[in-house]
Design a protein that fits this description.
This protein is α+β, with helices and mostly antiparallel strands. It is built from eleven helices and 16 strands. A hairpin with a 2-residue loop joins strand 1 and strand 2. Helix 6 runs antiparallel to helix 7.
């Protein structure tokens, strides 16, 4: 594993980078063909997306919605809870308490009014790789940094991964007809304003999920940091686009799979890395290949590290099984070796919520998920026909 840096005129990849997926590297190289592209940085968690890679930062003189994708503002929110760390936990009891957490929230309207956001989907995670997870500090690498980060190892932490849900998807497709030339001028300003609304909605929604989760378990907590990884920000005379990459300054988490640890890091990226940092372990298997490689079994709800996964959709359990992901520690170590980060502590997954375990609830979500995918495929085909654009 290593940091990969490429420029539009030349791909200069260290030898060890060749171990990465060839399709991901090809997609990384294709970014240099986008008009206005100035610099590309790929990270150790780089893996192939539909048409452009995940795990990279790109500096361009204009806005490219396609590089952010439809899950605008997707992020990792990290919290300190008041739940005490123990040798064992009432995981089955907690799992029952969280039943229905993916259903519409009774407080959605009042919460949305309070924070001046749209109420639709407020308080829900969404599907795919989104989750809310209780974690425990398993190993401390630097006590001073642990205190600086505000972590209390005698209590459980919570990591919430979620984005802008249907709001980001609707915005993405409303701009798809502009094709692969990017946005400039007035239309770019309009897009950026809408983008900021999606980011704001996504942030408050993660807060709502935290409120729902902690209320069910009769506890409280506080936000330590929130790190978007599908984002764009103005920089010099252009824009830094981060697709599956987070800000590279300050404390952050590199989340692992349910079978590996997550890592709290202190990132110290520079302009060379476009002030960016990897956002996770990166997929080792596509969703399709994961369903084929991972046998469907209820044991998928028990993790190799002794944790519990609350999820009623077996296909989703297969797609998100530990085998589908690389080891997050390899990514963390690569950034340390590159001199742009320090490891603070390792976090062990205790309880992960993805969907309710009621069969009817999971089936309804899967049906909705497939219908949404079908609609997106139709919209993509229309966009390709109109502009030769591949979102």
């Amino acid at each position: 594993m290593s940091i990969l840096i490429s420029h539009p005129s030349m791909m200069a990849l260290p030898p060890r980078a060749q171990a990465l997926d060839a399709n991901a590297l090809e997609q990384l190289a294709s970014l240099s063909k986008l008009p206005g592209c100035g610099k590309i940085v790929g990270f150790p968690d780089l893996h192939a997306g539909r048409d452009y890679p995940i795990g990279c930062a790109v500096f361009i003189d204009r806005l490219y919605p396609v590089l952010i994708g439809s899950d605008i503002g997707c992020a990792m929110s990290f919290y300190q809870t008041q739940l005490s760390q123990k040798a064992s936990y009432p995981l089955e009891s907690w799992a029952q308490e969280l039943e229905g957490l993916d259903q519409p929230w009774s407080k959605a309207e009042s919460y949305a009014l309070e924070h001046q956001i749209m109420a639709d989907s407020v308080g829900t995670l969404g599907l795919g790789n989104h989750f809310a997870e209780l974690q425990s500090v398993e190993k401390v690498f630097d006590d001073t940094l642990l205190q600086e980060a505000g972590l209390d190892p005698t209590h459980l932490q919570m990591l919430i991964h979620s984005g802008s849900r249907k709001h980001g998807q609707e915005m993405f497709w409303s701009y798809a007809h502009y094709g692969a030339q990017g946005l400039q001028g007035e239309v770019a300003q309009h897009w950026y304003q809408a983008y900021q609304r999606c980011v704001r909605w996504a942030f408050h929604n993660r807060q709502a999920v935290f409120e729902r989760f902690t209320t069910r378990l009769n506890t409280q907590g506080a936000l330590l940091w929130d790190r978007p990884h599908n984002m764009v920000e103005p920089y010099q005379e252009g824009w830094i686009h981060r697709k599956g990459a987070q800000s590279g300054v300050g404390f952050c988490v590199i989340p692992g799979s349910r079978g590996t640890y997550s890592f709290v890091m202190k990132a110290q990226a520079s302009e060379e890395q476009l002030w960016s940092f990897p956002h996770g372990a990166g997929r080792a298997l596509s969703r399709k290949h994961a369903r084929a490689a991972v046998r469907a079994h209820t044991r998928l709800r028990q993790t190799p590290l002794g944790g519990r996964v609350v999820c009623g959709e077996m296909e989703l359990l297969q797609e998100e099984a530990p085998k589908a992901y690389k080891d997050a520690e390899h990514v963390a170590d690569a950034m340390v070796e590159a001199g742009v980060a320090q490891k603070v502590c390792a976090l062990k997954p205790v309880l992960t919520f993805k969907t309710s375990e009621q069969a009817c609830s999971a089936a309804q979500q899967r049906h909705h998920y497939r219908q949404a995918d079908k609609k997106r495929d139709i919209d993509r085909q229309k966009a390709r026909t109109q502009k030769g654009f591949r979102p």
